[in-house]
Amino acid sequence: MGRPKKVIETVAPVVPEAAVPDVEQKDAPVEQPKDPIVEQPSTPAKEPAKGKSYVIANPFVDKDNFSKSYNPGDDVPASFDKERIENLLKLGLIKEK
Prior knowledge:
The chain is low in regular secondary structure.
């Protein structure tokens, strides 16, 4: 058999800690992600006046019953409460007669 071959060990060079860049910066401020929802410019909504009647301006479906649709020119049902009328006015789905 012969003599065993000499194994050469390789050693990684020693680098001082100061020379190693700090990957994680703990003191750096963390940026919060931007909200993907873009807010629509707020237009002042008209407050529904008592005794006034409203008419559908743009077609939409009922928020509770999707099979019920409201078409332009139809009267707003009397069952709509003040808050719902305010929201529909703000969205431009209804208007005063």
